[in-house]
Write a structure and sequence with these properties.
homotrimer, TIM Barrel, Immunoglobulin-like, 3 domains, nine-stranded parallel β-sheet, 30% helix, hydrolase (chains A, B, C), glycosidase (chains A, B, C), GH (chains A, B, C), metal ion binding (chains A, B, C)
């Protein structure tokens, strides 16, 4: 897609390109095939530090200029990556301590990626230098439409245990807790005589059965170290670069993407979901959309399969690439980029799915890529002139992600999996398009707010803002396992919840684990209700009760499992268990009805994205490779087929419909 | 329960209480709720070293006196724990080598429990000092009815590999074997040229494929180190304290509880069994009862579920707490104590089941705890005035536990699991109450002795005593996998058994592994017999044969699997395989009939504990949450219901009956 | 078996014997039982270094002479082992660095086997010395019929990471690649900025996500280190010894047995297969036969089960020992030896199956051993006067084994398992006796060659020789996953195959992973065809196509999965997937028909070994314990039964037939 000046315009269809790993003479062929495929943007540069700086302080960018220029001449825009994920061997030789260490003090070897510690000053120094050199060289290059800092930076496993990381951890604790006694008391360290006399005595979370508060703070600090490292690069780039700067992230291990993108201009995001969990990407897109004004970029996804030296996946059903390529665009992004343009011929990842095989031959998916390019072209104006519009919100926060990772209340409860399967999927399958929001997000635009698994609400004043929003008329669906810990991960000592009882007047009695079917619940209308893993029991009047316990223990049979309390002009529905898919859809319907939010127009697995702007419409995505349908509220035109539609619109498996309201 | 002087009397209902982890003002509330629940004993102090000795040599017991006094004033007795399981951070700072090390030399961090090595001299010195200070302070306190040394002390995993442990290992070997050549020959160390030239050359069992004899001795010594550490504390306490001193143990990893309790006055025992394996606690109670004259204390068990930061269990069926709380009392103990009174509000174990939730609200199980307190009160005199009476014994020894852990003969054979499931359960389900005895126990009181999985009988002269006991008329059910190793874990070289052939005249031919059903056996009456994992084949005459092989290999079809030999006035039944549950019950019945021991009055899973003393009776426990029954031999009164019973007494699921013989 | 001079003659029936681990007085009994069992050869010495050299440089062979002499006097021949697998403790004391190290630098402890590093100079020095001493002592001993160097020497796991190994790795790389830039380019090390500036900078494959080329070279060098160590011993022995010298190997971890046996006179081989995978031994025998002129020795196999301190197996079906003992003889060997003669009474492996139990009593298998001895005796002349004769070959190479271990293309693809199950078994069940050949083997004798999973053909000029052989009329069945990597494990950049397209003119389009059944294939006659894990798609004309795709993706439905191309006088059949058992048999039949090779005379699991020489015949082995049959082409005499047979010969489960053509 290009504008009238010949500049590439969104929505972008891109691919990661590593010409430095190939003979120079391959470039013309590759570019000709990119044109044929409909690729408009190439992501380059991210792992080529050694080629840019073959010896310390000696830079060579001529080869890279040539690549950028050749792409530009061919009308292909460039996203330029800083190569800090792959420091050259000479850096490790100069400073052997620059690498990450595991808990046993074993150092990571050169030979992979991200082997240097983000807190290491020498690594930071050399990273800053190469970034500044690149920025000077390419800051004004018109072919470059955006920058990418580093690559998929996050704390792997438990992170790095090097002395710099331990020091940073201690400094963070001192900054947060002020005095060591405050920390000791906050973490209840009389318990087990753990009491520390100084911040620097606090160990990293290894080689002992550590308390969950220490483990939580460690995770938070490990992620912050990477945020700091990215911010350092952003500050350098911003001095030279005038196009958006981002960092391509991966949804792993509790990274806080609001923090990560604070100093950046754009959210860049990589995902490698597969048919079974494709909808989990939608949760991320619904979240990323809320972080920046600028539409996000899906910087990496696979055309067909993942693999380094071995493929563990099967061929994806035909049409999957269409849905996978459209989802980020439909949900508020402006780019979809494949990893990788052409499979590496040697080294790592030499069997990864791509657009071209390492032989240069098109992969079987090539035609599907062309179709995506065509469909983008047909709808580009509509995409650019509209934004996603929604009335409901759905909570997700990194603090709670990390808190569940360090204390999951019931075992085998994965925060992300449960959030996706038990809560998010029923919401989107109800025909809703939620904003997925974190604690910082303003609530005023929403009529319904879902807050499951928000173990703590003590984050960025959220508690106060929710209180006001409910008083003003919001419908808040909260729980299970929400508001049960303070910001350190400690329990409340006189009430089970931080403020839910005070807000609603409800009274919690018991929390009950069960995965053997000993507990049973019933809706007021007599329908059986099946929860999972955890049950909160409330002592509540029948008029405020939606579902009661029918089996479990005589101490709580007849008591309430789901309650609904009027608060000011609003309503609070407390869900006392992890509901089944159907029961969660029932809760969604009840809460939307209360709030006057339209729902239930989807049949099957049809995801809807309402679009508003200078034009109006909606995008439908059948995401389960099965027939689906959507009940249109008015006559619309399908911009992909040209057909006019109204009433019940049937969608074929993996069909996309881009629908514009007729005037 | 209190006596006429207002002193708390057994049976005790107790709970672990950590007031040092809570604001002082919570204590009155907690105590009022203890009174309401019927709790008569609080276990305190065990993890509070830092609070008692905030700096090296500076002690503060004022706060602890206040707690003891407040409890005492409320009529709640105290069990005082020494806090040596949780040394303060300053000890590790002063002596960084005081902590345990893994096989790679990695040191355990501060932050959990039991991180210091029981063999470390500095740790021992500071432990002795805090224990002596506590003993001086509280030795005469009338509220304290017992002391507990440390907490759940045992060798975790392979134990500690620090230099002190390695030295202790070498000293133990020298003491046991005398000369290095004796060790080399005993362990057959010409094999693989392993021959050592000095004791100090012998490695810890890591980083090589080690022989089983070395591994066995290491396990034994690791446990002994903890026994020594406890003994050191006991000697200090005994100088100041006049109530029983014990240590609360966990049934893990081959610890020898006879050794452990030798220097102590009382057996204290923690267990966290669940419905499916509750009967395994009974084996322990049947064993612990034999170790000391004083009735044992069940110092820890859960009211409802375990959990540190995550609960892996489900709500237990109603009534489980009754059975779990009654079992130690019925089987010869005088205390049942819950862990924990009130769930921690932060730190470790903040989701563990308790009596009060961390909010202070009663857990759903609160009423069940009250019921237990009531039932203890109704029967307290009967419990105190009677002892468990039995005619049968069942072997269990720590040496064999450790030997199976280091050479299990057939893979996936867990000594404890097989002992419980394949042998102990059929015995107790036959309506027998066995003493579970180790090698040291006198045999003269028993008519039947079961010795399965007694890999070695070379322990404390057991062989000689069994020989005499059988000659005098005992019925000995022995095997499988018994008497097949000497005390070092070596095989015999000319006979398969150490003395079974010599004792009985039987002749062993083959030992056959099978878990694919290739081997089949038949009782003499033609019933099929199904063994498991291992089969011994005997060349035995039909008149001494109870079961023969019908499938497997022509070398042994028609040969004998279970044989019965008259020896002196007694009988030896050698069981050549791990029998099924039903076949083991058949063996139990045969042997009891031979010995004139009454059996078979139970139906279902009803455990019986005959009680004799100044009054007589029995206690029945339905332990499987299913209907059961027991055929009474005479008219009795159920002290819990007041009803008079005779003949077939039906028990409801999880019912307890405390029955006294009518005069 | 003895010749007319009283010397023991092949086929040998032997057992490993460790008299040094037993009292001297046991030897007479053991030898009398060997005679009874029919054992003609004892393997001794292999682990007795400490007894031979109790102190550094002090040798004692008197005891060993006595053993050899006593065996010799009893008419039992000896295979003498060098004891270098078990260095004495004093060596580790003198040189603590002599032991292997893991990736974390943790040293292996004394206490097992093979704990010293084959690259360590001190270990080599002392090994050379003990071997030379032994050679001098026993080089002319007439009782000794062969020597065995060390025992089961191979790289365990990832091998040794000690400094000597790292240095050897760097030297190997320098020798192979010449310059570091050549290595950097060959491994595509611009990728991830991995570029090395010197060979000594290259890390061992640990503590990073390493590239597959580095991992491949490490594996190759680790194995070469052991080959060098064995060669060093062979050179010493050859100066003194006049009987065949070998080393008893285990089929593990990519060892190259051609390299290993290059400096040796004979192939010695240990295996411990069980009924389910017994045929996998046949692949090894078919391979080992091709390495040396001298018939190989099966130096170790179990009579009944394996076990060190625990047995994980079940009793084997009766007759299994017959088949297991006959297979090496039938397939070209001249010895079958059991491990172990008499189970160790202590130390390691004290529950291993044997001929005598540690008690000295015969195991249940004793009669089966006697039967084997009898059957060898009846057929010995025929065995000695004939050799295995075959017209087909089947590729297996260590380079490809190692390459699949470092990059398996699709996950969970084990080279050896897939080779055995999906390719080798259908070949032998088609009544063929293949030579299993590596890349060095001359092809001219064969009419059909199977080359599945030959990831690289760039080995020892194989590509050129295959090209010529096909031109000359050979029928080559190649693929899947063959010819897709160069010798470094890199992909080709312009064609998928190294030379298959050039050779045949075929055109590869796509490679597709699938394990969910999304891809389907059909034979030309309409039969459904089921492949596994991987599918190659060819753009091929119908006349050259044997099977086409019917499901998967519209990009390749109707394209070809198996193609057949005429090349010169020969034919190339490219198999694009891992076929099912039945489909592979179909491919075998088609290719044999094309080549005029007889096939299909077997029914069930009857393995055939045609024998040619001064007499002619064949040996049949029913190897699945089920009825089978073979269609004889002429009248023959069964040397085991004396019966004359013709036409369809039925074999009972586990029956052996040694058939000689009647004149």
């Amino acid at each position: 897609m290009k504008d009238k000046n010949g500049n590439v315009q969104p929505p972008y269809l891109g691919a990661a390109y590593y010409p430095e790993d190939w003979p120079e003479e391959e470039m013309d062929y590759d570019i000709s095939m990119m044109k044929k495929a409909g690729i408009t943007v190439a992501r380059i540069g991210e792992f080529a530090w050694h080629k840019m700086e073959p010896e310390p302080g000696t830079y060579d960018f001529a080869w890279l200029h040539k690549i950028v220029d050749t792409l530009g001449e061919a009308g292909i825009a460039v996203v330029m990556g800083t190569p800090t994920a792959t420091p050259p061997r000479w850096l490790i030789k100069l400073y052997p301590d620059v690498v990450t260490q595991n808990a046993d003090g074993v150092k990571t070897n050169h030979g992979g990626r991200r082997h240097c510690c983000s807190n290491n000053p020498e690594y930071r120094k050399y990273s800053a230098a190469i970034v500044e050199q690149m920025a000077k060289e390419f800051g004004d290059d018109p072919t470059i439409i955006g920058w990418q800092i580093d690559n998929e930076i996050y704390a792997s496993g438990d992170g790095c245990f090097c002395p710099h990381c331990q020091k940073a951890f201690h400094e963070k604790l001192e900054q947060k807790y002020g005095t060591i006694d405050h920390l000791n008391r906050s973490w209840n360290l009389n318990l087990f005589s753990q009491w520390y006399d100084a911040f620097e005595e606090i160990p990293a979370p290894c080689h002992a059965w550590h308390n969950p508060h220490l483990m939580l703070e460690w995770r938070i600090k490990q992620n912050e170290s990477h945020v700091d490292f990215v911010r350092m690069q952003a500050e350098i780039l911003h001095a030279y670069v005038h196009v958006p700067v981002g960092t391509d992230t991966m949804p792993f291990n509790g990274m806080d993407y609001r923090d990560m993108t604070e100093a950046l201009d754009i959210v860049q995001f990589n995902h490698y979901n597969v048919p079974d969990n494709l909808y989990c990407s939608a949760l991320w897109f619904d979240y990323l959309r809320t972080l920046k004004e600028h539409p996000f970029w899906n910087t990496e996804t696979a055309t067909c399969w993942n693999g380094s030296t071995a493929i563990g996946q099967s061929i994806k059903p035909e049409g999957y690439n269409r849905v996978n390529s459209w989802m980020p665009i439909a949900l508020g992004g402006e780019a979809n980029m494949y990893w990788i343009w052409r499979t590496h011929w040697a080294g790592h990842e030499l069997v990864h799915g791509s657009v071209l095989d390492s032989t240069g031959r098109p992969m079987h998916i090539f035609g599907e890529v062309q179709d995506v390019a065509d469909s983008y072209a047909k709808t580009a104006d509509f995409i650019r002139e509209t934004r996603v519009a929604t009335e409901v919100a759905f909570h997700f926060t990194s603090l709670n992600w990390n808190m569940f990772s360090t204390q999951s209340v019931v075992s085998d409860l994965s925060y992300m999996d449960t959030l996706n399967q038990s809560f998010y999927k029923p919401v989107i399958d109800s025909g809703l398009r939620p904003d997925v929001i974190d604690a910082a997000q303003d609530l005023s635009a929403y009529k319904v707010l879902f807050s499951p698994l928000m173990m703590t609400l003590e984050e960025k004043g959220l508690e106060t803002r929710i209180r006001q929003w409910v008083q003003d008329g919001g419908v808040w669906v909260v729980g299970p396992l929400s508001d049960i810990r303070n910001s350190y991960g400690a329990r409340y000592t006189h009430e089970y919840f931080g403020f839910l009882e005070k807000l609603t007047g409800a009274r919690w009695m018991y929390g009950i684990p069960d995965r053997e079917g000993r507990v049973a619940v019933q809706w007021n209308d007599g329908d059986a209700f099946h929860g999972d893993k955890w049950y909160d029991v409330f002592d509540e009047s029948p008029e405020n009760t939606l579902a009661v316990y029918t089996e479990g223990h005589s101490a709580f049979i007849g008591k309430s499992a789901i309650i609904s309390r009027t608060v000011g002009k609003g309503r609070v529905i407390i869900v006392g268990t992890i509901p089944s898919y159907d029961d969660m859809k029932r809760i969604v319907a009840m809460s939307c009805d209360l709030a006057g939010v339209e729902h239930g127009r989807s049949e099957g697995s049809v995801m809807v994205s309402p679009r508003r702007g200078s034009r109006n419409g909606l995008i439908l995505i059948e995401y389960a490779n099965a027939p689906g349908a959507y009940e249109l509220s008015r006559e619309m035109k399908n911009l992909l087929t040209g057909a006019t539609c109204s009433g019940r619109l049937e969608l074929a498996p993996y069909e996309i419909a881009v629908l514009e309201e007729l005037p």
